[in-house]
Structures are given as structure tokens and as C-alpha cells.
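pasting for ref. prot 1 ->
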Amino acid sequence: MPTAQGRFEVRRTPQGPLELGDTQGIHMRFDKTFEGPLVATSVVHMLAVGTAMEGSAGYVALERLEATLDGRAGRFSMMHFGVMDRGTPSLKLEVVPDSADGGLAGLRGSMRIDITDGAHFYRFDYELPPA
């Protein structure tokens, strides 16, 4: 399975509080720019909630990317599912099946995100059908 690795920049824009019954969450918009083998811009809408336990929280998000990968251009969507369990993070970030179009039609894959000294990095393991 091919892998693309690089850096991305993020701009955050709060979208206001999120009413969830007896607790309150947040809605954030992120605008991203990817560099490296995946050249892309994206818009992400994230819904998140914390808990009374320090270090525990969760989020879900939808992301739409306009991208070039392996010289092929198109758009695709990704889903995020993130959990912080008493300080231990986990993240599942996958391409939504059959969401890709243009030269990226048929794209499948998953992404890993690492943040080091405030810089954001991605590792995208993916499959593309033959052109």
C-alpha cells in the first residue's frame, strides 16, 4: 500500500457552543493546507465534548479535501473519530468509501496525524485503482 507523508497547516475558527442536553460541546471549523505528496486544501467541521474527568474527551469530524495525489486530481471526504481516555489519545481517520471523484475516484485509505512541537504532520496510507 502506498504511503504519502508530509506537513499540513491548520487555521481554526470557533463556530460556537454545541448544546448536548446537560453538557456543552464545541463546534469548530478547520481550514487545512497539505504539503508533500498529498497537495490539498480542506475544510473540516468538528464536534467535540469534554467530560468531568480531566483528560477525557471525544470528537467526530467530517473533512472534504480538494487534492492532487500521485499526479491525479480530485476531491474526497474523510471521517474523524477521536477519543482521549484519561490522557491516552486514539484517532481513527478514514476516507469515506466512494466519496472520491475525478482522478481520485476509487480512493481508499486511512490517515495518521502527529503533532510535534506545534507542527502538524500526516501519514496517509492509501490505494488508488489503476489510471
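and prot 2 ->
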Amino acid sequence: MDLFKITVPKKDIVPIIISIPHAGTHFPSGIRKNYRKRLRKYLDDTDWFVDKLYDFAPEMGITVIKANLSRWVIDLNRDSENIPLYNDNRLITSITPVTDFLGNEIYKSKKLIPNAKEVKKRIKKYYNPYHKKLQDLINDRKQQFGKVLLWDAHSIRHKVSTIQHDVFPDMILGDNDQKTAHTKLIETALAGLKTGDFKVSHNSPFKGGQITRSLGNPKENIHTLQLEMNKILYMDDNELHYNKERAGKVKKVLKTTLENLIETLKEI
């Protein structure tokens, strides 16, 4: 099984890459049986259909990379040394999660939880190749254009009480407190996201994960932004099924935002 899928641009390439690290649903055959069957059936922590939301991007010249493995196997947006992304008492799952976001144990028994050797194996076999490919894509676009923007695309349930008690804003742009991207790109992204009827937040409650924080280097013209959005914006009220009408409104905002970012990249 391929670890990721790359969708190449269908027109002239632009210096934007979209990363979708949490929409995968596959498990390696050797460990699939280790997970609780009921939880595995719904995979609640999956960023369902995010790749479908961005299916217009290749027509704009944007390269898309989507991970195929479930984040329960390996979380590509965590630090490889398991250094926490936040220190505010929220539930933070590890690079090889043992619970879902609600704190439910995902393995059938504690004996099946990955030990240090297994974690190291998964990092080498599944985590490193994705990050290497991201870096290769960034290097290619940087060499061609002198600049590049990596847009890390995510979604989450509209309320997760183990992270915060209140409902999340509709869309949350993260740039680690404006450290990972040029100010003009941040301003353009926020303005584009606000063209819809959605409540937009900046760096709260999410500042961007490991991908955004580790790869962004504006001084070298390598810019990264993370977009987290509520699943209910494009799925049904139970956040189980894709809702084409709702998704259409989201896609319109995303397309406008990315079109504007392409133009802003020409200016910086």
C-alpha cells in the first residue's frame, strides 16, 4: 500500500502545496486487528473528506499530498520526540495515539499498545517518508519559484470537550503566532476565509501542528499555514456524512482564499 497519494497540478504549477495528513483510513494488515473494532469502524479522529474539499486545487496548479494511513497508526502532525504542542491541560494525543480525542482507549488491550521499539519502527517506516516527501516538494517549488507556501489542511468535530468546553470557531488559521508565514500571506488568508459566512479565528485554539511549525521558515521564503475547520461545515449534523450543499459553500471560500494567496506570493 502506498503511504500517500500525490495529485499533480493539471495546469501550470504554482508555488503552493496542500498537505492533508489526517484523512487516511488504512491500517497495515499486521496491526489492524489490534484496534477496537467499534472505534475503528467510525474512526472519529479522521479528517473525513478533507481531500474532497480541495479537489479543485490541481486545476489551479496546486500540488496535493494526502496520507493514506490512519492517524491512529502514526500521527504525521506530531513531534517525533512526542514533545507536546500545547501546555494548557488539553488532551493531546501522541505520535502513536493510545486514545481518541475523547480519551477512549483505541487498542483492545494495554498489551497491544506500541512499545518504544514499535514506535521507532513506525516513525521510520511511516512518518519519515511523508515528511521527506513534503520537504522534497518544498525544495522543488523553492528552487523553481524562489518561494513556496505549504497549506496544511485539517478538520475536527465542532466540539471536543477534552480540548475546550466551548464550540470551536468555524475556521481556525494557525501560524504559530505569526512565526511560520509572511504577514501578507497571513492577512490574505484571513481575508479570504472571511469572505464566507463563517466565524474565523487566528491561532486560537490551534496554532498549527508539527508540520506547520517545523517547516515554516519565512526568512527563507518557506511559508506554512494550517487551516482547521469544523466538520459540521461540510458534513451532516452528526458529522458522519458528506453534505454537498454545505461543502459547496466551504469550497467557494477555500478557492477564493487560495486564488488570493497565489497572487500575494507574487508580491513577496
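The first strand starts at residue 4 and ends at 7.
The chain has one domain: 4-265.
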